[in-house]
Write a structure and sequence with these properties.
CATH class of the largest domain: Alpha Beta
Strand content: 5-15%
Number of strands: 11
Strand order of the largest sheet: 3-2-1-4-6-5
Number of domains: 2
Number of helices: 11
Amino acid sequence: MSARVGEVDAGVIGRTDPVVARVLRSWRGLTGGAAVRDGDRRTVVACSGGADSVALAIVLSLVEPKPLIVHVVHDMRSVEESEGDAAFVEGIAEVLGCDFVRERVTVRGMVGNLEANARDARYGVLARMAKEHGCSYVATGHHGDDQLETVLMRLIRGAGLRGLGGMKAKREIGVGVTLVRPMLGVSRDEVEDLCRRAGVDWVEDATNADVSYLRNRVRAEVVPVLKGIDGGIVERVVGDAASVRDASEALDRLVRARWWVTAERDGDGVVLSRDALRDEGGAGEIGAILRIGIDELCGGVGHDSVGRREIGCVVDAVMDGSEERRTVRVGPMVVVVHARAVRIARFDGDDDG
């Protein structure tokens, strides 16, 4: 769709609009609920110029104080494309009467996954902008179709229970700054329809057509088939993902209460009794412990790279009768299974257990 910014039709898009009302209700629920006044939950909207983030900006611009719209320019595309998108988002902010900030990040040449590096850099900028402008929340435009794609991707990669819970509706991304996703209950079709009814176009990222990326291929080739089978698949998977995440978080709480309090700090890692794990624990508990270890030692970063296969290797090593030391890399962690102990630490490229 072409990039065009016109006057938002407030007569069509108001707080009583069904989609707007759902998003606002979700946003308020994620930012403190009825106990917090709108004036105390000013939010940064991360706006790329796509339909999802534009729709979110439109919705949150209907409350006071209006959100701060932040656009992050990456070095992953041409300067012409990047600057064009930034100018478009600035125009959206002006039409909506919102303050606007443009920030730039450089990720090419960094070690590791390019997309993951870009995401981490982007969230770092958004958290900093929120702090600098007195905002406690950063909102992104992730919607129900994004959640469906995320769950499918993790199924393909062999994710565990937590992975199948999809994206969290809220999580910390900095001290005093919480990321919220108030549009997970809204479909892509509803998002685009909201923009059209508001009289605002959006920009399309050309890289979204590149099916060499798993998400793009799932979106282009798998999701249409599923929607053809069941038109309510998005809503159903969003609900199922929430239920799975609730179950995963309940297991985590039990594991923290039963196991993590017995962990002993050891430098940059923690040590658990292998005998206790083997005698009373099982695959589920050990897997949950590893994920909690990521939370405790890595600030929650790295869940996407923790696969069931690696966790299975650790479980096998813990549960077998061998007293030989084994070292297993699990995402951003390294787990060393000793004769009587299991040490979990962040992988630094030179960990000897």
